[in-house]
Each structure stands twice: as structure tokens, then as C-alpha cells.
Amino acid sequence: MENIKGKVFAGVGIILVILVFCLVYWLLFYQNTTYYTKIDNTKVEILDSGDMRYEYTLDAYNKNGKEKEVTFKTSRELKEDAYLELEVMLTRGVKSWQEVQFDELPDKVQEQYE
């Protein structure tokens, strides 16, 4: 009977370790949210070294209009008043971005910029 309890305990432990590993993997690589922002070059910091010399800290909005401050780096200064779609990960921050047109923004985001 003692041997069975030990095997069950070990099995539950292994399952918990696998679940924690899967959760961490999901948080690091798959969990992301789309935010939208408008470039304001008065809020750019020029860094001294490295390929990514421009660091932006801007207010961004998700599709429901919820605000979040995001910080990301670029290799060049971006076009003033351009709209960006940002892929933001909880653990890694801004993963990628692309320029979009105003009419491509969700309605709740457009309301923030009108």
C-alpha cells in the first residue's frame, strides 16, 4: 500500500511540474494582446549605443479602449502622428509593431484619438 501512495504522489508531482512548465511557456511565447498607439516624437529618448537607438514610451489602447503605457525601442525615429498596431506580451513587452491607418483602428481606439 505504501508503494502505491508513493507512485501516486510522484505522478501528481510530475503532472504539476508539467502544468507549471506549460503555463510559463504560454506566458513567455503565446500570450499577447494587441494595442494601438499614435507616435509622438516629443516622447522619444535617444539612447547612446546599440542598434535600437530610439526608445518610445507612449500611451496605447486595446480594442476596448483600455489604456496602457508601453515602452519599445526602434532603430530609427518613427513618423510623427503615425498610428501603430503593437503586439504586447505580458512578460516581454512589445514584441512587434506595424504602421496602420486611422480607419484600421478599432472604434473604441478611434474615439481616443478624435
Question: How do the strands and helices of this protein lay out in sequence?
Answer:
Layout: H1 2-29, E1 32-38, E2 44-46, E3 54-61, E4 67-74, E5 83-89, E6 93-100, H2 107-113
Antiparallel strand pairs: 1-3, 1-5, 2-3, 3-4, 5-6
What do you see in this structure?
There is one protein chain. The protein is α+β, with helices and mostly antiparallel strands and 114 residues long. It has 2 domains: 1-30; 32-113, Protein of unknown function DUF1093 (OB fold (Dihydrolipoamide Acetyltransferase, E2P)). 31% of the residues lie in helices and 36% in strands. It has helices at residues 2-29, 107-113, and strands at 32-38, 44-46, 54-61, 67-74, 83-89, 93-100. The longest helix has 28 residues, at 2-29. 13% of the residues are buried.
The total count of helices amounts to 2
Distance between the termini: 71 Å
Q: How many individual domains?
A: 2
Radius of gyration: 21 Å
Question: Proportion of β residues?
Answer: 35-45%
The CATH architecture of the largest domain: Beta Barrel
Mean pLDDT: 88
* CATH C-level label of the largest domain: Mainly Beta
